[in-house]
Specification:
45% of the residues lie in helices and 17% in strands. The N and C termini lie far apart (47 Å). It has 328 residues and is an alpha/beta fold. It has a 6-stranded mixed β-sheet with strand order 6-7-8-9-11-10, with helices on both faces.
């Protein structure tokens, strides 16, 4: 195991959602005990100048489920050994250990989460954390992936679980980032070490309280009407909570249509833009990056943070792309 070669001070940077938290939990079990784990400022898919300066003091840095900008990675790699474990659409970055099968052209259906990729790399048997990351990123849609839904079903049978309990665990783990509690996100991977009984996730009082608040907020926006652009649904929301992915997912999956959601309430000077589509969004993600926006995602998902004065034009680009894709 190459982790044994790591020397000095270490940092683990992970995404704030269930997949990132569970990937971190799996990695921390194998890493030296002194490794610090953190997540970027919630909602930002890049490292701030302050974060870059602080992280420059570490000897090695591991990044999990986080498609950070290449310039961030290259700068970190000047002073630290960098390792990346991911499943997002991205270029392989030379000069670092970059473990991302999808970036090498492998089928995304075979690598549905960073947690699964990490678990395979570590040589672990199937476990709750590897599977929670999968359910976190796909929710009920994983049922259409015969291979992984069979793995999840078998695990549930052996451990007296039902699939809906997986979904609830994901909602609870995601609740901290959605209410803006970065400290709780960073505490979560280590808290999971204490949960030798996986059902303790379902009993966490703070997460349950978060969930009540969030469900009310999400339902408010999902219930409302969407603007229709041909066969595409467009929704503008204004909320301080990081629920744009949940709102977009529900609108898209319940309608069966492509969905575009803009949140004007999370940042003061920027907007969140989120897209879910049945097509391939990789060219659109590339275009967003070329525009200079913080933009990332997977084949069916785009997430971006855009200056408010650029939101309208970027949304128009998105709609034109989706319409032209349908016309082909």
């Amino acid at each position: 195991m190459m982790f044994k070669e790591l020397q000095g001070s270490g940092l683990l940077i992970h995404h704030w959602d269930t997949d990132g938290i569970c990937s971190a939990r799996l990695l921390l079990e194998k890493l030296p005990k002194i490794v610090v784990n953190t997540t970027p400022a919630l909602g930002q898919y890049f490292l701030t100048e302050e974060e870059m300066t602080t992280y420059g003091s570490y000897d090695f840095i591991i990044i999990a489920d986080m498609a950070l900008p290449e310039e961030n990675i290259r700068r970190l790699a000047k002073t630290a050994r960098v390792m990346i474990f991911d499943h997002h659409l991205q270029r392989l970055i030379p000069g670092v250990f970059h473990h991302n099968p999808i970036a090498t052209g492998k089928n995304p259906l075979c690598y549905p989460s960073a947690s699964w990729i990490v678990n395979e790399f570590l040589g672990n048997p199937v476990n709750i954390f590897a599977l929670l990351g999968i359910v976190g990123d796909h929710e009920r849609r994983i049922q259409t992936n015969k291979k992984f839904y069979s793995i999840i079903t078998n695990f549930c049978r052996k451990n007296q679980l039902i699939f809906d309990e997986f979904l609830l665990m994901v909602s609870l783990l995601d609740s901290s980032y959605k209410v803006g509690d970065r400290i709780s996100v960073q505490q979560a991977p280590r808290l999971l070490f204490e949960y030798t009984d996986m059902r303790r996730i379902l009993e966490n009082v703070q997460w349950k309280q978060n969930l009540v608040l969030l469900e009310n907020e999400i339902a408010k926006y999902v219930r409302g009407d969407c603007e229709k652009k041909n066969d595409i649904l467009l929704k503008c929301i204004h909320t301080p909570y990081n629920i744009i992915s949940s709102v977009t997912r529900r609108i898209a999956w319940e309608s069966g249509k492509d969905a575009v959601v803009v949140n004007t309430g999370f940042f003061k000077d920027r907007d969140q833009v989120y897209v879910r589509s049945g097509g391939d969004l990789q060219p659109l993600i590339h275009q967003g990056k070329m525009n200079g926006y913080r933009c990332g995602g997977k084949k069916e998902v785009l997430g971006a943070v855009v200056p408010k004065e650029k939101t309208e034009s970027f949304v128009e680009e998105i709609l034109q792309f989706l319409l032209s894709s349908k016309a082909k």
